[in-house]
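ok so for the tutorial part 2 we go from a plain amino acid sequence to predicted C-alpha coordinates. step 1 is just haveing the sequence, like this:
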Amino acid sequence: MSERPKENPAANTTEVYAIHGAEPEVLAYAMAKYSRSALSMKESLTEISSQRAEQFLNTFYFQYGHRSIADLAHIPFAIEKLSLLAAITVVDESRWDGQERSTRYQDFRRSGWFTPQLAEPQREAYTAAVKSLFASYDGLSQHMLGALKGAIPCPETMKPESYERTLKARAFDVARYLLPLATNTSLGQIVNARTLESQVSRLLSSEFAEIRELGGKLRAAASEPAWNVQRAALEEMAGEGSVPQEATREILEEFLKPVRTAPTLVKYAERSEYVCASRAELAEAARELMKGAEIYPAPVVDLLDDDEDLEVEIATSLLYPQCHYSYRQLRGAVAALREPQRNEILKLGAAHRGRHDELLRAFSAGHGFRFDILMDIGGFRDMHRHRRCVQLLQQFSDCHGYDEPGCPGQPSLAEAGLEQEYAAAMAAAYDAYRVLRDSGEPDAAQNAQYLLPLGTRCRSLFKMDFAEALYIAELRSGVAGHFSYRRVAWEMYRAVEARHPALAGLFRIEDVNVPVDLLKR
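step 2 — the prediction. this is what the C-alpha coordinates look like for a chain of 521 residues:
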Protein backbone atom coordinates (compact mmCIF):
# COMPACT_ATOMS: atom_id res chain seq x y z
CA MET A 1 0.00 0.00 0.00
CA SER A 2 1.50 3.27 -1.05
CA GLU A 3 2.19 5.94 1.55
CA ARG A 4 -0.16 8.88 1.48
CA PRO A 5 1.56 12.22 0.73
CA LYS A 6 2.00 14.44 3.74
CA GLU A 7 -0.28 17.43 3.90
CA ASN A 8 1.37 20.79 3.51
CA PRO A 9 0.04 22.99 6.34
CA ALA A 10 0.99 26.11 4.39
CA ALA A 11 -0.76 25.11 1.19
CA ASN A 12 -3.20 27.59 -0.30
CA THR A 13 -2.49 30.22 2.35
CA THR A 14 -1.52 33.77 1.46
CA GLU A 15 0.13 35.98 4.06
CA VAL A 16 -0.01 39.75 3.77
CA TYR A 17 1.75 42.14 6.11
CA ALA A 18 2.90 45.73 6.06
CA ILE A 19 6.56 46.58 6.67
CA HIS A 20 7.86 49.45 8.74
CA GLY A 21 11.24 50.47 10.06
CA ALA A 22 13.54 49.09 7.34
CA GLU A 23 15.98 51.44 5.69
CA PRO A 24 14.94 52.21 2.08
CA GLU A 25 18.06 50.65 0.55
CA VAL A 26 17.82 47.58 2.78
CA LEU A 27 14.17 47.19 1.81
CA ALA A 28 15.05 47.56 -1.88
CA TYR A 29 17.67 44.83 -1.49
CA ALA A 30 15.17 42.54 0.24
CA MET A 31 12.57 43.13 -2.49
CA ALA A 32 15.14 42.47 -5.22
CA LYS A 33 16.19 39.21 -3.54
CA TYR A 34 12.73 37.74 -4.24
CA SER A 35 13.92 36.92 -7.74
CA ARG A 36 17.12 35.29 -6.46
CA SER A 37 16.21 33.66 -3.15
CA ALA A 38 13.52 31.47 -1.57
CA LEU A 39 13.61 33.46 1.67
CA SER A 40 10.52 35.26 2.90
CA MET A 41 10.56 39.03 3.30
CA LYS A 42 10.80 38.70 7.08
CA GLU A 43 13.73 36.29 6.77
CA SER A 44 15.47 38.52 4.24
CA LEU A 45 15.12 41.67 6.31
CA THR A 46 16.25 39.88 9.47
CA GLU A 47 19.52 38.76 7.94
CA ILE A 48 20.33 41.78 5.76
CA SER A 49 22.65 44.50 6.99
CA SER A 50 23.09 47.93 5.43
CA GLN A 51 26.61 46.90 4.42
CA ARG A 52 25.36 43.85 2.51
CA ALA A 53 22.69 45.97 0.87
CA GLU A 54 25.31 48.43 -0.34
CA GLN A 55 27.43 45.58 -1.76
CA PHE A 56 24.41 44.11 -3.55
CA LEU A 57 23.36 47.44 -5.02
CA ASN A 58 26.87 48.27 -6.18
CA THR A 59 26.93 44.98 -8.07
CA PHE A 60 23.48 44.73 -9.57
CA TYR A 61 22.51 48.38 -9.87
CA PHE A 62 25.67 50.01 -11.13
CA GLN A 63 27.62 47.14 -12.72
CA TYR A 64 24.79 45.11 -14.26
CA GLY A 65 22.42 48.01 -14.85
CA HIS A 66 19.38 46.60 -13.02
CA ARG A 67 17.93 50.07 -12.44
CA SER A 68 14.49 48.71 -11.59
CA ILE A 69 15.89 47.87 -8.15
CA ALA A 70 15.87 51.59 -7.36
CA ASP A 71 12.12 51.63 -8.00
CA LEU A 72 11.76 49.65 -4.76
CA ALA A 73 13.33 52.25 -2.46
CA HIS A 74 10.84 55.04 -1.71
CA ILE A 75 12.06 58.07 0.20
CA PRO A 76 10.12 61.02 1.63
CA PHE A 77 11.67 64.49 1.45
CA ALA A 78 10.70 67.95 2.63
CA ILE A 79 12.01 70.76 0.42
CA GLU A 80 11.36 74.09 2.08
CA LYS A 81 11.93 77.71 1.13
CA LEU A 82 12.60 77.33 -2.55
CA SER A 83 11.28 79.66 -5.22
CA LEU A 84 8.13 78.92 -7.21
CA LEU A 85 10.36 78.81 -10.28
CA ALA A 86 12.55 76.13 -8.72
CA ALA A 87 9.53 74.19 -7.47
CA ILE A 88 8.19 73.90 -11.03
CA THR A 89 11.50 72.31 -12.03
CA VAL A 90 11.61 69.98 -9.01
CA VAL A 91 8.19 68.46 -9.70
CA ASP A 92 8.80 68.11 -13.45
CA GLU A 93 9.08 64.31 -13.23
CA SER A 94 6.71 61.79 -14.80
CA ARG A 95 7.14 59.48 -11.78
CA TRP A 96 6.62 62.00 -8.97
CA ASP A 97 4.33 62.06 -5.95
CA GLY A 98 4.07 65.03 -3.64
CA GLN A 99 2.27 68.16 -2.55
CA GLU A 100 3.19 71.84 -2.71
CA ARG A 101 1.87 74.80 -0.76
CA SER A 102 -1.41 76.04 -2.20
CA THR A 103 -1.79 79.61 -3.44
CA ARG A 104 -5.52 79.24 -2.79
CA TYR A 105 -5.43 78.43 0.91
CA GLN A 106 -2.28 80.18 2.13
CA ASP A 107 -1.33 83.84 2.27
CA PHE A 108 2.02 84.08 0.51
CA ARG A 109 2.88 87.46 2.01
CA ARG A 110 4.66 85.58 4.81
CA SER A 111 6.69 83.39 2.46
CA GLY A 112 9.52 85.74 1.56
CA TRP A 113 11.34 85.36 -1.73
CA PHE A 114 14.48 84.08 -3.38
CA THR A 115 17.16 86.54 -4.50
CA PRO A 116 19.79 85.30 -6.98
CA GLN A 117 23.39 86.48 -7.02
CA LEU A 118 23.25 90.03 -8.39
CA ALA A 119 25.48 93.08 -8.46
CA GLU A 120 24.33 95.78 -6.03
CA PRO A 121 22.47 98.06 -8.50
CA GLN A 122 20.56 95.10 -9.96
CA ARG A 123 19.95 93.60 -6.52
CA GLU A 124 18.38 96.83 -5.28
CA ALA A 125 16.11 97.08 -8.33
CA TYR A 126 15.22 93.40 -8.05
CA THR A 127 14.24 93.75 -4.39
CA ALA A 128 12.16 96.83 -5.10
CA ALA A 129 10.31 95.04 -7.92
CA VAL A 130 9.52 92.00 -5.74
CA LYS A 131 8.34 94.17 -2.85
CA SER A 132 6.11 96.12 -5.21
CA LEU A 133 4.51 92.93 -6.50
CA PHE A 134 3.89 91.66 -2.97
CA ALA A 135 2.29 94.97 -2.04
CA SER A 136 0.06 94.74 -5.10
CA TYR A 137 -0.75 91.10 -4.25
CA ASP A 138 -1.79 92.15 -0.76
CA GLY A 139 -3.91 95.03 -2.01
CA LEU A 140 -5.58 92.96 -4.71
CA SER A 141 -6.49 90.13 -2.32
CA GLN A 142 -7.95 92.54 0.26
CA HIS A 143 -9.92 94.61 -2.24
CA MET A 144 -11.20 91.58 -4.14
CA LEU A 145 -12.35 90.05 -0.85
CA GLY A 146 -14.31 93.23 -0.20
CA ALA A 147 -15.82 93.12 -3.68
CA LEU A 148 -16.82 89.49 -3.22
CA LYS A 149 -18.49 90.22 0.10
CA GLY A 150 -20.36 93.10 -1.48
CA ALA A 151 -21.62 90.91 -4.32
CA ILE A 152 -22.33 87.71 -2.37
CA PRO A 153 -24.09 88.00 1.00
CA CYS A 154 -23.54 85.35 3.64
CA PRO A 155 -26.42 82.82 3.63
CA GLU A 156 -28.22 82.30 6.92
CA THR A 157 -27.36 78.61 6.77
CA MET A 158 -23.61 79.24 6.48
CA LYS A 159 -21.29 79.93 9.38
CA PRO A 160 -19.57 83.34 9.15
CA GLU A 161 -16.12 81.78 9.48
CA SER A 162 -16.83 79.37 6.60
CA TYR A 163 -18.16 82.26 4.52
CA GLU A 164 -15.03 84.31 5.22
CA ARG A 165 -12.69 81.40 4.51
CA THR A 166 -14.41 80.49 1.23
CA LEU A 167 -14.40 84.01 -0.17
CA LYS A 168 -10.83 84.57 0.98
CA ALA A 169 -9.80 81.54 -1.08
CA ARG A 170 -11.59 83.05 -4.09
CA ALA A 171 -9.77 86.33 -3.52
CA PHE A 172 -6.43 84.50 -3.37
CA ASP A 173 -7.32 82.86 -6.70
CA VAL A 174 -7.33 86.36 -8.18
CA ALA A 175 -4.39 87.79 -6.25
CA ARG A 176 -2.03 84.93 -7.09
CA TYR A 177 -1.67 86.35 -10.61
CA LEU A 178 0.66 88.97 -9.09
CA LEU A 179 2.93 86.61 -7.15
CA PRO A 180 6.43 86.66 -8.69
CA LEU A 181 8.25 83.44 -9.54
CA ALA A 182 10.75 84.46 -6.85
CA THR A 183 8.13 83.75 -4.15
CA ASN A 184 9.22 81.10 -1.67
CA THR A 185 7.19 77.94 -1.35
CA SER A 186 7.63 74.50 0.22
CA LEU A 187 6.84 71.00 -0.95
CA GLY A 188 6.96 67.40 0.18
CA GLN A 189 7.72 64.51 -2.12
CA ILE A 190 7.84 60.73 -1.88
CA VAL A 191 9.86 59.32 -4.77
CA ASN A 192 11.63 56.10 -5.55
CA ALA A 193 15.39 56.15 -5.80
CA ARG A 194 15.43 55.87 -9.59
CA THR A 195 13.26 58.98 -9.91
CA LEU A 196 15.44 60.69 -7.31
CA GLU A 197 18.59 59.90 -9.27
CA SER A 198 17.03 61.30 -12.46
CA GLN A 199 15.69 64.32 -10.59
CA VAL A 200 19.05 65.15 -8.99
CA SER A 201 20.86 64.86 -12.33
CA ARG A 202 18.28 67.09 -14.00
CA LEU A 203 18.49 69.73 -11.28
CA LEU A 204 22.29 69.73 -11.42
CA SER A 205 22.02 70.33 -15.18
CA SER A 206 19.82 73.44 -14.81
CA GLU A 207 20.74 76.86 -16.13
CA PHE A 208 19.63 78.34 -12.78
CA ALA A 209 22.12 78.51 -9.91
CA GLU A 210 19.37 78.06 -7.31
CA ILE A 211 18.22 74.83 -8.95
CA ARG A 212 21.74 73.44 -9.33
CA GLU A 213 22.36 74.09 -5.63
CA LEU A 214 19.06 72.43 -4.82
CA GLY A 215 20.14 69.32 -6.72
CA GLY A 216 23.25 69.08 -4.56
CA LYS A 217 21.20 69.50 -1.38
CA LEU A 218 18.77 66.80 -2.44
CA ARG A 219 21.61 64.37 -3.14
CA ALA A 220 23.17 65.20 0.23
CA ALA A 221 19.85 64.70 2.02
CA ALA A 222 19.66 61.15 0.62
CA SER A 223 23.24 60.42 1.66
CA GLU A 224 23.30 61.92 5.15
CA PRO A 225 21.35 60.74 8.23
CA ALA A 226 17.64 61.47 7.79
CA TRP A 227 15.59 63.41 10.31
CA ASN A 228 13.77 60.86 12.49
CA VAL A 229 10.49 62.05 14.01
CA GLN A 230 10.60 59.36 16.72
CA ARG A 231 14.18 60.21 17.67
CA ALA A 232 13.35 63.92 17.79
CA ALA A 233 10.30 63.30 20.00
CA LEU A 234 12.32 61.11 22.37
CA GLU A 235 15.10 63.67 22.67
CA GLU A 236 12.52 66.37 23.40
CA MET A 237 10.94 64.23 26.12
CA ALA A 238 14.36 63.58 27.63
CA GLY A 239 15.07 67.30 27.63
CA GLU A 240 11.84 67.91 29.48
CA GLY A 241 12.71 65.23 32.04
CA SER A 242 9.72 62.98 31.27
CA VAL A 243 12.07 60.18 30.11
CA PRO A 244 15.31 59.29 31.96
CA GLN A 245 18.47 60.31 30.14
CA GLU A 246 19.99 56.85 30.51
CA ALA A 247 16.93 55.17 29.01
CA THR A 248 16.98 57.65 26.17
CA ARG A 249 20.57 56.83 25.30
CA GLU A 250 19.86 53.10 25.31
CA ILE A 251 16.82 53.48 23.05
CA LEU A 252 18.66 55.76 20.64
CA GLU A 253 21.65 53.42 20.41
CA GLU A 254 19.62 50.25 20.08
CA PHE A 255 16.50 51.13 18.12
CA LEU A 256 16.76 54.64 16.67
CA LYS A 257 20.15 54.69 15.03
CA PRO A 258 20.74 57.35 12.34
CA VAL A 259 19.54 56.17 8.92
CA ARG A 260 20.87 57.29 5.56
CA THR A 261 18.04 56.78 3.08
CA ALA A 262 19.76 56.15 -0.27
CA PRO A 263 23.51 56.85 -0.13
CA THR A 264 24.38 54.10 -2.63
CA LEU A 265 21.61 54.71 -5.14
CA VAL A 266 22.28 58.43 -5.61
CA LYS A 267 26.04 58.60 -5.26
CA TYR A 268 26.59 58.69 -9.03
CA ALA A 269 23.89 61.25 -9.78
CA GLU A 270 25.75 64.06 -11.55
CA ARG A 271 25.23 66.88 -14.01
CA SER A 272 24.16 65.47 -17.38
CA GLU A 273 26.51 66.49 -20.17
CA TYR A 274 23.99 65.01 -22.59
CA VAL A 275 21.23 67.35 -21.41
CA CYS A 276 23.43 70.44 -21.26
CA ALA A 277 25.14 69.97 -24.63
CA SER A 278 21.89 69.01 -26.38
CA ARG A 279 20.07 72.02 -24.93
CA ALA A 280 22.67 74.45 -26.25
CA GLU A 281 22.85 72.90 -29.72
CA LEU A 282 19.08 72.55 -30.13
CA ALA A 283 18.57 76.16 -29.03
CA GLU A 284 21.02 77.27 -31.72
CA ALA A 285 19.24 75.05 -34.26
CA ALA A 286 15.90 76.65 -33.38
CA ARG A 287 17.38 80.14 -33.80
CA GLU A 288 18.85 79.23 -37.19
CA LEU A 289 15.60 77.68 -38.34
CA MET A 290 13.26 80.50 -37.31
CA LYS A 291 15.67 83.38 -38.05
CA GLY A 292 13.92 85.75 -35.64
CA ALA A 293 10.48 85.30 -37.21
CA GLU A 294 7.53 86.99 -35.55
CA ILE A 295 5.58 84.80 -33.11
CA TYR A 296 2.14 84.23 -34.65
CA PRO A 297 -0.99 84.51 -32.49
CA ALA A 298 -2.23 81.14 -31.22
CA PRO A 299 -5.33 79.88 -29.42
CA VAL A 300 -5.38 79.00 -25.73
CA VAL A 301 -5.58 75.31 -26.68
CA ASP A 302 -4.55 73.89 -30.04
CA LEU A 303 -5.25 70.19 -30.65
CA LEU A 304 -2.59 69.26 -33.16
CA ASP A 305 -3.04 67.09 -36.23
CA ASP A 306 -2.95 63.36 -35.57
CA ASP A 307 -1.55 62.30 -38.97
CA GLU A 308 1.87 63.88 -38.61
CA ASP A 309 5.04 62.04 -39.65
CA LEU A 310 6.88 60.76 -36.60
CA GLU A 311 10.16 62.29 -37.75
CA VAL A 312 8.53 65.72 -38.06
CA GLU A 313 6.94 65.40 -34.63
CA ILE A 314 10.19 64.43 -32.90
CA ALA A 315 12.24 67.12 -34.65
CA THR A 316 9.66 69.78 -33.76
CA SER A 317 9.43 68.53 -30.18
CA LEU A 318 13.21 68.72 -29.80
CA LEU A 319 13.19 72.40 -30.80
CA TYR A 320 9.97 73.38 -29.01
CA PRO A 321 11.39 73.83 -25.44
CA GLN A 322 14.24 75.94 -26.81
CA CYS A 323 12.10 78.74 -28.26
CA HIS A 324 8.79 80.57 -27.78
CA TYR A 325 6.97 79.66 -31.00
CA SER A 326 3.78 77.66 -31.06
CA TYR A 327 4.16 74.03 -32.05
CA ARG A 328 2.12 74.62 -35.22
CA GLN A 329 4.30 77.53 -36.38
CA LEU A 330 7.50 75.68 -35.54
CA ARG A 331 6.30 72.51 -37.23
CA GLY A 332 5.62 74.44 -40.43
CA ALA A 333 9.27 75.44 -40.56
CA VAL A 334 10.48 71.92 -39.73
CA ALA A 335 8.20 70.30 -42.32
CA ALA A 336 9.54 72.68 -44.99
CA LEU A 337 13.09 71.39 -44.47
CA ARG A 338 14.59 68.82 -46.79
CA GLU A 339 14.79 65.35 -45.26
CA PRO A 340 18.59 65.46 -44.68
CA GLN A 341 18.24 68.78 -42.81
CA ARG A 342 15.41 67.43 -40.68
CA ASN A 343 17.44 64.33 -39.90
CA GLU A 344 20.26 66.54 -38.64
CA ILE A 345 17.91 67.86 -35.93
CA LEU A 346 17.09 64.28 -34.92
CA LYS A 347 20.80 63.49 -34.71
CA LEU A 348 21.41 66.54 -32.52
CA GLY A 349 18.93 65.17 -29.99
CA ALA A 350 20.97 62.01 -29.49
CA ALA A 351 24.52 63.02 -30.43
CA HIS A 352 25.78 63.47 -26.87
CA ARG A 353 23.89 60.58 -25.29
CA GLY A 354 26.02 58.55 -22.91
CA ARG A 355 25.79 54.86 -22.12
CA HIS A 356 23.33 55.29 -19.23
CA ASP A 357 21.42 58.34 -20.48
CA GLU A 358 17.74 58.08 -21.28
CA LEU A 359 16.67 59.82 -24.46
CA LEU A 360 15.46 63.39 -24.09
CA ARG A 361 11.79 63.68 -23.20
CA ALA A 362 11.07 65.18 -26.64
CA PHE A 363 11.61 61.73 -28.18
CA SER A 364 8.41 60.52 -26.46
CA ALA A 365 6.22 60.66 -29.53
CA GLY A 366 3.30 58.99 -31.25
CA HIS A 367 0.51 60.05 -28.86
CA GLY A 368 -2.91 60.48 -30.41
CA PHE A 369 -3.78 63.68 -28.55
CA ARG A 370 -1.31 66.55 -28.42
CA PHE A 371 -2.37 69.91 -27.02
CA ASP A 372 -0.29 73.06 -27.41
CA ILE A 373 -1.45 75.20 -24.47
CA LEU A 374 -0.92 78.91 -23.83
CA MET A 375 -1.98 79.84 -20.29
CA ASP A 376 -0.86 81.73 -17.18
CA ILE A 377 1.99 80.23 -15.16
CA GLY A 378 -0.20 79.86 -12.06
CA GLY A 379 -2.72 77.75 -13.97
CA PHE A 380 0.06 75.76 -15.62
CA ARG A 381 1.34 74.77 -12.17
CA ASP A 382 -1.98 73.00 -11.59
CA MET A 383 -1.99 71.35 -15.02
CA HIS A 384 1.62 70.34 -14.45
CA ARG A 385 0.48 67.79 -11.84
CA HIS A 386 -0.85 65.40 -14.46
CA ARG A 387 1.71 62.61 -14.79
CA ARG A 388 0.12 60.29 -17.34
CA CYS A 389 1.25 62.45 -20.21
CA VAL A 390 4.41 63.91 -21.73
CA GLN A 391 4.93 67.59 -21.01
CA LEU A 392 7.37 69.94 -22.76
CA LEU A 393 7.66 73.41 -21.24
CA GLN A 394 9.18 76.50 -22.80
CA GLN A 395 11.16 78.97 -20.69
CA PHE A 396 9.24 81.77 -19.02
CA SER A 397 9.24 85.09 -20.84
CA ASP A 398 7.22 88.28 -21.32
CA CYS A 399 6.76 87.60 -25.04
CA HIS A 400 3.23 86.19 -24.67
CA GLY A 401 1.93 88.89 -22.33
CA TYR A 402 -0.30 88.08 -19.37
CA ASP A 403 -3.80 86.96 -18.48
CA GLU A 404 -6.37 88.77 -16.37
CA PRO A 405 -8.31 86.83 -13.74
CA GLY A 406 -11.96 86.39 -14.62
CA CYS A 407 -14.65 83.97 -13.53
CA PRO A 408 -18.34 83.90 -14.57
CA GLY A 409 -20.41 84.89 -11.57
CA GLN A 410 -17.54 86.70 -9.84
CA PRO A 411 -16.85 90.45 -9.91
CA SER A 412 -14.35 91.26 -12.66
CA LEU A 413 -11.33 93.47 -12.05
CA ALA A 414 -13.17 96.33 -13.74
CA GLU A 415 -16.30 95.81 -11.63
CA ALA A 416 -14.17 95.74 -8.49
CA GLY A 417 -12.35 98.92 -9.55
CA LEU A 418 -9.02 97.08 -9.72
CA GLU A 419 -8.32 96.90 -13.45
CA GLN A 420 -5.92 99.85 -13.63
CA GLU A 421 -4.01 98.81 -10.50
CA TYR A 422 -3.57 95.30 -11.90
CA ALA A 423 -2.33 96.54 -15.28
CA ALA A 424 0.08 98.96 -13.57
CA ALA A 425 1.51 96.19 -11.37
CA MET A 426 2.07 93.97 -14.39
CA ALA A 427 3.65 96.77 -16.42
CA ALA A 428 6.07 97.64 -13.59
CA ALA A 429 7.05 93.98 -13.16
CA TYR A 430 7.72 93.60 -16.89
CA ASP A 431 9.78 96.78 -16.97
CA ALA A 432 11.96 95.47 -14.13
CA TYR A 433 12.22 92.08 -15.86
CA ARG A 434 13.42 93.63 -19.13
CA VAL A 435 15.94 95.90 -17.46
CA LEU A 436 17.51 92.97 -15.61
CA ARG A 437 17.32 90.66 -18.65
CA ASP A 438 19.13 93.19 -20.85
CA SER A 439 21.65 94.28 -18.20
CA GLY A 440 24.48 92.15 -19.58
CA GLU A 441 25.16 90.69 -16.12
CA PRO A 442 26.03 86.97 -15.79
CA ASP A 443 22.91 84.77 -15.93
CA ALA A 444 20.77 87.87 -16.53
CA ALA A 445 18.30 85.99 -18.74
CA GLN A 446 17.73 83.40 -16.01
CA ASN A 447 17.69 85.78 -13.04
CA ALA A 448 15.17 88.09 -14.70
CA GLN A 449 12.60 85.29 -14.88
CA TYR A 450 12.16 85.41 -11.10
CA LEU A 451 10.46 88.79 -11.53
CA LEU A 452 7.71 87.46 -13.81
CA PRO A 453 4.30 87.29 -12.09
CA LEU A 454 2.24 84.08 -12.17
CA GLY A 455 -0.26 85.83 -14.47
CA THR A 456 2.37 85.71 -17.24
CA ARG A 457 1.43 83.40 -20.09
CA CYS A 458 3.65 80.42 -20.81
CA ARG A 459 3.52 77.80 -23.53
CA SER A 460 3.58 74.04 -22.93
CA LEU A 461 2.96 70.93 -24.99
CA PHE A 462 0.94 68.04 -23.52
CA LYS A 463 0.98 64.65 -25.26
CA MET A 464 -1.44 61.95 -24.09
CA ASP A 465 -3.91 59.23 -24.98
CA PHE A 466 -7.68 59.69 -25.10
CA ALA A 467 -8.29 58.41 -21.57
CA GLU A 468 -5.99 61.05 -20.11
CA ALA A 469 -7.53 63.79 -22.25
CA LEU A 470 -10.95 62.87 -20.91
CA TYR A 471 -9.65 62.65 -17.33
CA ILE A 472 -7.99 66.09 -17.41
CA ALA A 473 -10.99 67.74 -19.07
CA GLU A 474 -13.43 66.25 -16.58
CA LEU A 475 -11.34 66.90 -13.47
CA ARG A 476 -10.17 70.40 -14.32
CA SER A 477 -13.51 71.69 -15.56
CA GLY A 478 -15.16 71.13 -12.15
CA VAL A 479 -16.83 74.16 -10.57
CA ALA A 480 -14.58 74.00 -7.50
CA GLY A 481 -11.44 74.47 -9.60
CA HIS A 482 -9.50 77.60 -10.46
CA PHE A 483 -11.04 79.49 -13.37
CA SER A 484 -7.74 79.53 -15.28
CA TYR A 485 -7.41 75.80 -15.79
CA ARG A 486 -11.19 75.34 -16.01
CA ARG A 487 -11.08 77.35 -19.24
CA VAL A 488 -8.20 75.24 -20.59
CA ALA A 489 -10.00 72.00 -19.73
CA TRP A 490 -13.13 73.24 -21.50
CA GLU A 491 -11.15 74.14 -24.62
CA MET A 492 -9.50 70.70 -24.59
CA TYR A 493 -12.95 69.13 -24.58
CA ARG A 494 -14.22 71.42 -27.35
CA ALA A 495 -11.21 70.53 -29.51
CA VAL A 496 -11.83 66.80 -29.06
CA GLU A 497 -15.54 67.32 -29.71
CA ALA A 498 -14.81 69.05 -33.02
CA ARG A 499 -12.49 66.31 -34.26
CA HIS A 500 -14.10 63.23 -32.70
CA PRO A 501 -17.80 64.00 -32.15
CA ALA A 502 -18.60 60.37 -31.33
CA LEU A 503 -16.26 60.57 -28.33
CA ALA A 504 -17.64 63.86 -27.02
CA GLY A 505 -20.63 62.15 -25.43
CA LEU A 506 -18.30 60.20 -23.12
CA PHE A 507 -17.20 63.36 -21.32
CA ARG A 508 -18.89 64.38 -18.06
CA ILE A 509 -17.98 68.01 -18.49
CA GLU A 510 -18.86 71.25 -16.72
CA ASP A 511 -19.54 74.22 -18.99
CA VAL A 512 -17.15 76.86 -17.68
CA ASN A 513 -19.18 79.68 -19.18
CA VAL A 514 -22.03 79.09 -16.73
CA PRO A 515 -21.75 81.29 -13.59
CA VAL A 516 -20.82 79.27 -10.53
CA ASP A 517 -21.90 79.41 -6.91
CA LEU A 518 -18.77 80.95 -5.40
CA LEU A 519 -19.63 79.64 -1.94
CA LYS A 520 -19.32 76.02 -3.09
CA ARG A 521 -15.85 74.55 -2.91
